[in-house]
Structure formats: structure tokens, C-alpha cells
Amino acid sequence: MTHQPVEPSSNRATRLFGDLLEDLIDAVVNSPGRALAERRAAFAAEPMAGAPGAFAEKVRRRAYSVTDADIDSLRRDGMNEDAIFELTIACAVGEAYSQLQAGLKAIGGRP
Amino acid sequence: MRLTILERGQRLRARVAIRMIGLISRTKPDDIARIALYRPGIFGSPFMRLMREVMRGGSDWTVGERELFAAFVSRRNSCTFCTGIHCHVASIASGREMTVDLLDDWMSAPFSEPVKATLGALAALKDSTGAPIPEAVSAARHAGVSDQALSDALHVAFMFDVINRLADVLGASYEGDVGRRLTAAGLYRHGYQVPSWFLR
């Protein structure tokens, strides 16, 4: 799995954030686990079929509206709790990273 | 919480950490800590290192201003849990009561011009109701906000774009208003510091 790397910056703080951010993303998309393929797809906001796809879209766009029924639909789809945990993290970090890139681009920094 | 693994599936060292957090904060342990401590190699360990640096490391922004940005982003994401907690952390850190009304009415709130302009840039990035992004960034620069300070604020937004989603999806909660304030006070005192042993 590859992602757009955080470009080096001459600024100390941004460079430090960038290094720590790289560590976080590497952990989310490369750590071994129950749902590695789903995690990678969710991080990159790639289309996903069925209940995981619907769930991922909701986490990205309207996380506040997620209910027990959304989690239950993943269970019925065969996902165990570890896989659901992983999928949720990948959706959250992926969407936040996408918004961060847009913000950094707006101030002229390379994402 | 919505996943039983976060309540009853934690390994021993995480259970010790959760117990300590509860004792220190004198309320139900912060559910975000439960999330960070569960299989920390996949998320919590790198996330908390970044959190500590973004929220408490060197920056042009004070701790109170960063907590205000955290509360503001949480409000924009409609995350009641994080808005409530970080409003109170911002109140403690700044010595001025922060409320949801001030977050909603930020344009006329008694914030400094650089803070207001930065909120404008965050608002523009979060949704289409703010000024267009280039104008908002330009306004922030005009108010004296450096690009580094804007980048720092964007990183605060990143952290809470993640946490808000995890809190809402995984079902984070606090025990009433007293629990909210105690959790916030604990976060303020300990500044997101989790001993690395717990996150290994």
C-alpha cells in the first residue's frame, strides 16, 4: 500500500509532524490484522461493496449518525469486532488525512 | 461502547492504564484512552505521539487556543462528546468560559483576530458555508497568522477529524456534566501524556 507521502519541509515543527504522521499512516495501512485489505481500501476511500462500503461512507461523511444498527450490519456481514475496529480507524484516519492534505495545499505547502 | 473488545478485551497493561486513568481523573476512564490502548501498534501508539506534539509541543498557538480549535472542529463535525470535553479544556487553559454558543457565533465572539481568522480558514475547509478557502487563508495571513501557525491549526483539525469519528462510531461517553468536566480537567493536567510502556 502506498499513499501520498508527506513532503519534507524546512520547518522543524512541520517536519516533526510529518514524520509522526507517516508513522501513524504506516501503522494504519500496513500493520498486520484481521482486515488489512479493507483497511487499505477504507484509508484510500476506494469503493467497497456491501455493508462495509455503506459503513465506510457513513464514517467519512456523517460519523455522528452511526448507530448500533450500523455495527450490527457489519457483524451480519461476517466481520468480527477486531475487523470492525480496524475498518473504523482506517476510515477515520483516511478522511482526516484527505482533509489535511486539502488544507496544506491551500496554504501552499505540499501535502 | 459499541465494541465489547474495548470494554472487556483489553490486555493486562491496558487494563492497568485504564484503571490508573480512572483513579487520576476521578471519573469513568476516558473512552478515547480505551481506543488508543487497544492494539496500540495499529493506531494508538503513533497517534498519541502525534497528539502530544500537536496539542502540547512548540507552536505559536497557546494550549488554550489549540483546545479552542479542537472544540471548534468537533462542533463542526457534530461530535457532542469531543465538543463538550474540549470546550472545558479550553476554558481551563484560557481561564475564560468556552461555550458551544461562542463556537457557533465565532465571528462575533471575543477571540483575537488571528484566532478568528484561523477559525475562518478551518470553517472554509470544513464546509461550504465559510468563505472560499483562498480568501479565508488570505484573511488569516492578513490578520498576522503565519503559514506555520495555519499548518499547526490544520494538524489540530486532523487530530480531531480522527477522534470525532472514533468517538461517535465506537460510542464514547462520559458520566454527565460532572464526568465531562473531570475528564477535561484530567486531559488538561496530563496533556495527552500516556507512558510509552502502556502503548507498546
Count of β-strands of chain B: 0
Structural class of chain B: mainly alpha
CATH topology of chain B: AhpD-like
Percentage of residues in DSSP E strands of chain A: under 5%
Annotated CATH architecture of chain B: Up-down Bundle
- Provide the gyration radius of chain A in Å: 15 Å
Helix and strand element order of chain B: HHHHHHHHHHH
The 3D shape of chain B can be described as globular
Uncertain segments of chain A are 4-10
User: Which geometry of chain A do the CA atoms define?
Assistant: globular
The total count of helices of chain A amounts to 5
Layout of secondary structure:
The complex is a heterodimer of chains A (111) and B (200).
Chain A: H1 12-30, H2 36-43, H3 50-62, H4 68-76, H5 81-106
Helix pairs in contact in A: 2-5, 3-5
Chain B: H1 4-8, H2 12-25, H3 31-37, H4 44-56, H5 63-76, H6 80-94, H7 100-104, H8 113-126, H9 133-142, H10 147-170, H11 176-190
